[in-house]
Design brief:
The protein is mainly beta and 90 residues long. The chain contains two helices and six strands; from the N terminus they run αββββββα. It has one domain. 14% of the residues lie in helices and 39% in strands. The strands form two sheets. Strands 1-2-3-6 form a four-stranded antiparallel β-sheet, with helices on one face.
């Protein structure tokens, strides 16, 4: 998918799940596509974890840090530069 003029489709985005990328200096894996929000969800693969609270706000377990990357810039409808930099790595 490097520098391709192929339009972004749900199928092409789903094919990215499991791909390893680097985001802000951290090794990450694409773990989910949020179709309604047009976004990728990345999970940090490094040893750092965050504490995940339960529904009552009490900490019970450590999980990998996740970040959501929008595919489009909301104000202009153009491709988000963060998303573009991830795609260039693939």
């Amino acid at each position: 998918m490097k520098q391709s003029k192929t339009p972004l489709t749900t199928e092409s985005l789903r094919s990215l799940i499991g791909t390893l990328v680097s985001y802000q200096g951290a090794n990450c894996q694409i773990i989910e596509i949020l179709e309604d929000e047009m976004a990728l969800v990345l999970e940090a693969r490094d040893a750092h974890t965050t504490i995940q609270p339960d529904q009552h706000g009490e900490a019970h377990r450590r999980v990998a840090h996740t970040v959501t990357i929008p595919i489009l810039c909301s104000e202009k409808g153009e491709v988000n530069p963060d998303f573009a930099s991830l795609i260039c790595q693939i």
